[in-house]
């Protein structure tokens, strides 16, 4: 689901925006000032930022500039009652993609968001890696092909997702619950032992000695960790 951060200090305007975005099916996070907006941005990944310019703590221009420095793809729309040309130029110069003057209709806002999302989605696809490499493993993400030392390894779709997640998070300890959320989805309510079963099967396919795994390490009481042996 598309996630949007709405940073607006006026409660009535913020509520108006949030209600309409949620009705349109977006996942919306609110911030009532620039400092809170930056904190939310540091904690989560967003597709679109809607930033009021005149906010307390940190203004919209500063939030825009800092957010753009961390994420060159995220879509940023400035919201303001100020319509001076120099304000628009300032917003664009610090990394904004679009600029909407108050008051605006829900239809106009949604149309601007949908247009910007097309650009964001295109750029995100271009930035995605085409392959993952870790030690003797090479994963072609387009073909969903797993190789070890140049030899194909046949894995199930779940094993593939699990292996990719491990490699993307090399040397990070992940609990069963974290792996369930990442691979099976946050709405999965099955047995946590599903993780152990799939890891055991994956080890049978990628480890030279599954009883003494070199790549998928078990940390008793904590979870699992992927180790790059090279």
Summary?
This protein is an alpha/beta fold and 230 residues long.
Describe the structure.
- It is a single chain.
- Helix content is 43%, strand content 21%.
- The chain has 8 helices and 11 strands.
- The strands form 3 sheets. The chain has a 5-stranded parallel beta sheet with strand order 2-1-3-4-5, with helices on both faces.
- The longest helix is centred in the middle third of the chain and has 22 residues.
**Percent range for β-strand residues:** 15-25%
Helix count, DSSP H or I runs of 4 or more residues: 8
| Overall radius of gyration | 22 Å
Uncertain stretches of 5 or more adjacent residues: none
Sum up the overall morphology in one term.
elongated
What is the CA–CA distance across the termini? Answer: 37 Å
Elements, N to C (H/E): EHEHEHEHEHEEEEHHHEE
Task: Give the tally of β-strands.
Answer: 11
Descriptors for this entry?
8 helices; 230 residues; 11 strands; elongated; alpha/beta; 5-stranded parallel β-sheet
Ordered list of secondary-structure elements with their pairings:
Blueprint: E1 3-7, H1 11-23, E2 27-31, H2 34-43, E3 48-52, H3 60-70, E4 75-80, H4 85-93, E5 98-101, H5 106-127, E6 131-134, E7 137-140, E8 145-148, E9 151-153, H6 157-168, H7 176-184, H8 193-206, E10 216-219, E11 223-226
Parallel strand pairs: 1-2, 1-3, 3-4, 4-5
Antiparallel strand pairs: 6-7, 7-8, 8-9, 10-11
Helix pairs in contact: 2-3, 6-7, 6-8
């Amino acid at each position: 689901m598309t996630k949007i951060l709405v940073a607006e200090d006026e409660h009535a305007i913020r509520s108006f925006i949030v209600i309409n975005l949620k009705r349109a099916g977006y996942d919306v996070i609110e911030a009532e000032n620039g400092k809170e907006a930056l904190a939310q941005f540091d904690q989560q990944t967003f597709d679109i930022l809607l930033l009021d310019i005149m906010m307390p703590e940190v203004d919209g221009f500063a939030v825009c500039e800092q957010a753009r420095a961390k994420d060159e793809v995220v879509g940023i729309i400035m919201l303001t009652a100020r319509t001076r040309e120099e304000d628009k130029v300032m917003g664009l110069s610090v990394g904004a993609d679009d600029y909407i003057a108050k008051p605006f209709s829900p239809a106009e806002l949604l149309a601007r968001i949908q247009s910007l999302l097309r650009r964001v989605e295109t750029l995100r696809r271009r930035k995605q890696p085409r392959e993952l490499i870790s030690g003797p493993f090479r994963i072609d993400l387009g073909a969903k092909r797993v190789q070890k030392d140049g030899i194909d390894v046949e894995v199930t779709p779940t094993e593939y997702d699990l292996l990719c997640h491990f490699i993307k998070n090399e040397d990070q300890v992940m609990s069963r619950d974290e792996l369930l959320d990442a691979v099976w989805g946050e709405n999965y309510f099955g047995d946590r032992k599903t993780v152990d079963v799939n890891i055991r099967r994956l080890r049978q396919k990628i480890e030279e000695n599954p009883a003494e795994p070199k790549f998928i390490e078990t940390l008793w009481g904590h979870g699992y960790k992927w180790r790059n042996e090279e």
